[in-house]
Design goal:
It contains three helices and two strands. The protein has 69 residues and is α+β, with helices and mostly antiparallel strands.
Length: 69
């Protein structure tokens, strides 16, 4: 999914993207309840607004981002 996320980061300049290495950051993964990879957590106003687990296609990610604007 990394290439798709990188494309989205280029397309949505006002949106911040980040990733966590859950093997190295087990505590942080636990804080966010990450139990499957990939898990995408979307935040709005500092709070979790959406969560997608599993591989997703770019149009679905765009739809989720647009819905949170």
């Amino acid at each position: 999914m990394a290439p798709v996320i990188e494309e989205l980061a280029d397309e949505f300049k006002g949106v911040k993207f980040g990733k966590i290495d859950v093997d190295r950051e087990e505590g942080l993964a636990a804080v966010f309840g990450i139990s499957a990879i990939p898990t995408l957590v979307f935040f709005k106003d500092g709070r979790e607004a959406a969560r997608l687990t599993g591989v997703r296609r770019k149009p679905q990610l765009i739809e989720t981002i647009e819905a949170l604007k």
